[in-house]
Amino acid sequence: MADSILSFKKRFILALLFGGFFLVLIVLSIFIKKTPLTAPPTPISPTLVPVEVSGTPQEKSSPIKIEPAPAVENNELGTIKFSYQSKNVPNSGTVYTQAPTSIPTDVVARIQEKLIAGGQERILNTPKGQVIFMQKDSKTLTIYLYSRTISYSDSSPQASTPQNTSSLLKRAADFIASLNLPYDNTSGSATYFNEKEGDLVPSNDPNADLIDISFKEAVQGLTVYRQFGSNASTHVWFSKAGGIKKFTYFYTPQYVPQKSVILPTLNEAERMILDKKGIIVGLGRDYQQPPVKSISSTTFTSVEVAYFNNGVDTLLYPIFVFKGTSLTDQSSPLPVTIYLQAVN
Fold first, then answer.
1. pLDDT value at position 331?
2. Which residue of 15, 23, 206, 260 is surrounded by the most CB atoms within 10 Å?
3. What is the DSSP code (8-state) at residue 16?
4. Residue 285 lies in a domain
5. pLDDT score at 157
């Protein structure tokens, strides 16, 4: 009899425990507000490109923002004229996603040995990813593993051995080849700069203080543009004395075709430019171009369909690139570059 009473008490206590547990769950479900699992809001961008990249049809890519040129105070182009000959632009393109690649460890080791052997190394863990920093005497090497970017500089004074542009183009190509890095060796171009009060001022003088030999990105036969109208990913900077002062290089990732898209016709693209849907990404030749308050007229002399990547997001998508000249009331004619999204 005592055993049966004890057994009944145990069953009663267990029933109370289970009942209380489910009662707590019901109360929590009623009074605790559920938080929806949504992505944080993204800033409003003039170039929202909701491209389906994977998964269900509801899964969209994050909007990618094209940054306007710093000198632009508004996106007005004044009176617009298209002055190029008839262009044959493709009627379709491809959206690519970037394969999850970094700079291979053997490439990192080779760059370190070639440029700054024996330098003191520090590894920095930043919110964006890992950075390798090396320094030896006047030389500095920084490798941004997360963005596949290599930056090297040498601040030492150099003996004067001035050379012409063609020889500098060859020296730049030989320098990159010595590092065994891929690049577009057909796209070399030279830009001249003078140093003035800490700024770089463009010049037409081959004997300027600095000469930038640049090459386009070698990426699967695609022309890739980045922020502010640049389509060069490799730069070798020479001093007037002929020494290499700086080297920057973007280690090309692999881009994987994701989907085909229909592109606007050239007439449609021009209409979108007239409707102020393009973004002024380059204005003027000076890195420190003063702000331009108003543009009276713009004449476009070239147009091409290329690809855009902002260096952070993984999407590579087609854009129209319009180039020409803008007139203002404040200065002489300024070169201008416009990006127009080609994906809706």
1. 66
2. 206
3. H
4. yes
5. 75
Structural domain tally of the chain? 2
Looking at residue 310, its pLDDT comes to 67
Task: Indicate whether 25 belongs to any domain.
Answer: no
What are the residue ranges in the chain where pLDDT is below 50? 1-63
Structural domain range at position 171: 105-252
Among the candidates 252, 287, 317, a domain finishes at 252
- Number of Cβ within 10 Å of residue 121's Cβ equals 13
Burial of residue 151, with CB atoms counted within 10 A of its CB: 0-12 exposed, 13-18 middle, 19 or more buried: middle
- Residue 173 dihedral angles phi and psi, to the nearest 5°: -65, -40
Neighbour order of strands in the sheet with 130-136? 120-125, 130-136, 139-144, 149-154, 244-250, 232-239, 210-216, 189-196, 199-203
pLDDT tens figures, 285-314: 655 556 777 788 999 999 999 888 766 667
Concatenating the DSSP letter of every residue in 31-47 gives HSPPPP--PPPPPP-TT
Task: Please tell me whether residues 138 and 71 are part of one structural domain.
Answer: no
Domain boundary among 252, 276, 310: 252
Are 233 and 222 spatial neighbours (Cβ–Cβ below 8 Å)? no
pLDDT at 13 (0 to 100): 45
User: What pLDDT shows up at residue 267?
Assistant: 93
CATH number of the domain to which 220 belongs: 3.30.310
What pLDDT is recorded for position 183? 78
Q: How many CB atoms lie within 10 A of CB 105?
A: 9
